């Protein structure tokens, strides 16, 4: 019997695609995206201290810039600019990543060079294009603030120390958790998001966006090459050092243009998008992702639905839960 | 001034003697069996965490895990256990143990790096494997349409459809398995397609471009997957954990032997201190008796002198 290869290919292909796509209706228990935890058990005193340090301009060389200067909590934890602007108006090489929900990222910075939030907190303080200071200077300034010194003394056995500043800021940042309507949906409230957003979520999964943007933080748990199925950097041109991504950390050729996959939580608020801040709107960002990461086309209506779903990821800050 | 120096010398000597006693006492206390129990427990935990981690990687590879959080989280537990072992055994100051810990740290760092590579590779592979049947359907549909609208090209379009079916079946068979021969076979099948998109009508050429792009990606990622898993399989994490455990045991035993020596030294030193105390006590008693004898003599002399003074008066 001669086997009809076309029919076989169609059947096998369809079965494979269906199996890979998973069930069409949302089974909340087995979703690739998980809801944020409701409790974190953080030390409230450290959160309060970290909050005041996060907003303290004395951490910068000329007392002009606090962490909150670039990570504006009212703007989704970013500054809304293409590139970071540091002390003296110096423009940095990269877009500011959001600080919201950053405690759920497996590494910090676009190129993942910091293993933890504590390690990350040191980076901007020392970066000459960001806060342009150092711990010696910062500690010398903070030591003059007796109530602050007392606050450190009450929490940490060794008082005001660089590592304790880092610990307090990191603890505050861990408290910046934004529960969204989508989290409610994942917890079983089927009316928390609209039908349009549900369709968008299904498309988000079926088109494969979820391959990288999954887990509790909808990203932030892996690295990925920017331009998997198309050469993004050749098309954009003018390649900078920051574009090399993880290569700048490992110096390995296979890590060129590799970045930490960013979280999509609050993505509605964090424009412009990507490490180069090149996508001005969420629609533009989705277009780029389809072209260079998914290597496929989609009707505009599907992209609009995906954007609608992404907007359901916007949440409110609930500190110290 | 002389008295001051004498007192200072006494104070220094006493401090040295007490300091030596404290040192010997600490040396005999530096090792306790709970340390060994704790490290052995941590080694067991580390092995279990590592094994669980491997299972999560395989679950991810076979598509059983819905996110990479499960593959990412064990990293934290593993590193925490490794640090706890290092902290618990820091007091042993053994070079072999230190070297074994460095080797373990390197092995774990390599594993973390390989798993990071795996996640990136697996996400791309899964997406393209999932999309390739749809891309093939789209391409075949357009080829059939082109064959209908241009009967002269019908044969060529049908050949294309057959070739796409063949490539698709081979690619799907590749699935979760690893077969470098199959990768080569698919490459040879797809080769002629890659060079010819310009010869086809535009809609067909566009779909063919997408199909081939994903196909090339699948083959590249499949090869990368094989490389990553080959390296992971060769990575001696368990051996390194065993080496740390063995080095710890040996260092602990050595420290135990040292402790016995310090016990003996403490005993001897305590005996010496007691003898010193007894000698000092004897010296003090002798001094006291001498002073008493002199006192009595002085009292007597004083009485004699007073008596004589009274007679003179």
Q: How many runs of DSSP E, i.e. beta strands of chain A?
A: 4
Helix content estimate of chain B: over 70%
β content of chain B, as a range?
Answer: under 5%
Could you name the CATH topology of the largest domain in chain A? Cytochrome Bc1 Complex, Chain D, domain 2
Number of helices of chain B: 8
Number of helices of chain A: 13
Please give the radius of gyration of chain B in angstroms: 43 Å
Strand content of chain A: under 5%
Largest sheet of chain B: none
- Taking pLDDT < 50 over at least 5 consecutive residues as the criterion, the unreliable ranges of chain A are 13-27
Q: What's the oligomerization state?
A: heterodimer
Topology record:
The complex is a heterodimer of chains A (321) and B (313).
Chain A: H1 5-21, H2 44-54, H3 67-70, H4 117-126, H5 135-142, H6 146-155, H7 162-174, E1 177-180, H8 181-186, H9 195-206, E2 223-225, H10 232-236, H11 247-250, E3 258-260, H12 282-294, H13 300-311, E4 315-318
Chain B: H1 2-29, H2 33-61, H3 69-88, H4 95-149, H5 154-174, H6 180-194, H7 202-234, H8 237-312
Helix pairs in contact in B: 1-8, 2-3, 2-8, 3-4, 4-5, 4-7, 4-8, 5-6, 6-7
Structure write-up:
The complex is a heterodimer of chains A (321) and B (313). Chain A is 39% helix and 4% strand. Chain A has 2 domains: 175 residues, Orthogonal Bundle (Cytochrome Bc1 Complex, Chain D, domain 2); 133 residues, Cytochrome c-like domain (Cytochrome Bc1 Complex, Chain D, domain 2, Orthogonal Bundle), CATH 1.10.760.10. Chain A is mainly alpha-helical and 321 residues long. Chain A contains 13 helices and 4 strands. About 5% of the residues of chain A have low confidence. In chain A, strands 1-4 form a two-stranded antiparallel sheet. In chain A, strands 2-3 form a two-stranded antiparallel sheet. In chain A, helix 4 packs across helix 7, helix 9 packs across helix 13 and helix 12 packs across helix 13. With 313 residues, chain B is mainly α. Among the domains of chain B are: 61 residues; 134 residues, no CATH class. Helix content of chain B is 88%, strand content 0%. In chain B, helix 4 packs antiparallel against helix 5, helix 4 packs antiparallel against helix 7 and helix 6 packs antiparallel against helix 7. The longest helix of chain B is centred in the last third of the chain and has 76 residues. Chain B is rod-shaped, with a radius of gyration of 43 Å. The interface between A and B is large, with 38 and 39 residues.
């Amino acid at each position: 019997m001669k086997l009809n290869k076309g029919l076989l290919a169609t059947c096998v292909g369809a079965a494979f695609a269906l199996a890979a796509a998973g069930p069409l209706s949302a089974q909340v228990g087995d979703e690739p995206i998980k809801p944020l935890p409701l409790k974190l058990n953080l030390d409230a005193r450290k959160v309060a201290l970290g909050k005041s340090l996060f907003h303290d301009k004395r951490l910068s060389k000329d007392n002009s810039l606090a962490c909150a200067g670039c990570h504006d909590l009212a703007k989704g934890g970013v500054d809304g600019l293409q590139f970071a602007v540091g002390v003296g108006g110096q423009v940095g090489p990269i877009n500011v990543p959001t600080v919201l929900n950053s405690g759920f990222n497996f590494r910090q910075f676009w190129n993942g060079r910091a293993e933890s939030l504590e390690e990350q907190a040191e980076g901007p303080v020392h970066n000459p294009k960001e806060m342009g200071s150092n711990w010696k200077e910062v500690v010398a300034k903070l030591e003059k603030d007796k109530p602050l010194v007392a606050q450190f003394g009450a929490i940490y056995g060794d008082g005001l120390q660089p590592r304790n500043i880092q610990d307090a800021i990191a603890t505050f940042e861990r408290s910046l958790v934004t529960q969204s309507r989508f989290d409610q949906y994942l917890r079983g409230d089927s009316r928390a998001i609209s039908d349009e957003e549900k369709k968008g979520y299904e498309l988000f999964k079926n088109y494969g966006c979820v391959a990288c943007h999954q887990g509790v933080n909808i990203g932030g748990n892996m690295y990925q090459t920017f331009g998997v199925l198309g050469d993004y950097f050749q098309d954009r041109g003018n390649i900078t050092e920051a574009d090399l991504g993880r290569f700048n950390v490992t110096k390995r050729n296979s890590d060129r243009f590799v970045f930490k996959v960013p979280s999509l939580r609050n993505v509605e608020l964090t424009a412009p998008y990507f490490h180069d801040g090149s996508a001005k709107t969420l629609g533009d960002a989705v277009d780029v992702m389809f072209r260079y990461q998914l290597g496929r086309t989609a009707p505009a209506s599907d992209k609009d639905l995906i954007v609608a779903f992404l907007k359901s990821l916007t949440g409110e800050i609930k500190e110290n839960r | 001034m002389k008295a001051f120096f004498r007192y200072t010398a006494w104070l220094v000597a006493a401090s040295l003697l007490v300091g030596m006693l404290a040192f010997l006492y600490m040396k005999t206390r530096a090792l306790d069996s709970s340390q060994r129990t704790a490290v052995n427990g941590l080694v067991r935990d580390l092995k279990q965490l590592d094994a669980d981690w491997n299972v999560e990687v395989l679950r991810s590879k076979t598509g059983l895990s819905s996110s990479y959080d499960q593959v990412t989280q064990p990293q934290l537990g593993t590193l925490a256990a490794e640090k706890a072992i290092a902290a618990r055994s820091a007091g042993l100051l053994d070079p072999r143990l230190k070297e074994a810990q460095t080797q373990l740290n390197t092995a774990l760092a390599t594993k973390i790096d390989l798993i990071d590579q795996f996640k990136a590779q697996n996400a791309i592979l899964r997406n393209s494997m999932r999309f390739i049947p749809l891309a093939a359907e789209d391409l075949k549909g357009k080829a059939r349409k082109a064959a209908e609208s241009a009967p002269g090209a019908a044969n060529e379009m049908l050949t294309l459809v057959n070739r796409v079916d063949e490539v698709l079946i081979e690619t799907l068979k590749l699935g979760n398995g690893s077969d470098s021969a199959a990768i080569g076979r698919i490459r040879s099948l797809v080769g002629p397609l890659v060079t010819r998109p310009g010869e086809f009508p535009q809609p067909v050429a566009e779909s063919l471009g997408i199909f081939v792009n994903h196909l090339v990606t699948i083959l590249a990622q499949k090869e990368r997957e094989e490389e990553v898993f080959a390296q992971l399989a060769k990575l001696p994490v368990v051996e390194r954990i065993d080496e740390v455990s063995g080095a710890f045991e040996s260092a602990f035993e050595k420290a135990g032997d040292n402790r016995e020596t310090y016990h003996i030294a403490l005993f001897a030193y305590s005996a010496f201190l007691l003898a010193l105390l007894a000698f000092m006590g004897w010296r003090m008693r002798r001094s006291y008796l001498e002073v008493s004898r002199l006192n009595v003599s002085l009292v007597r002399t004083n009485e004699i002198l007073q008596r004589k003074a009274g007679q003179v008066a």
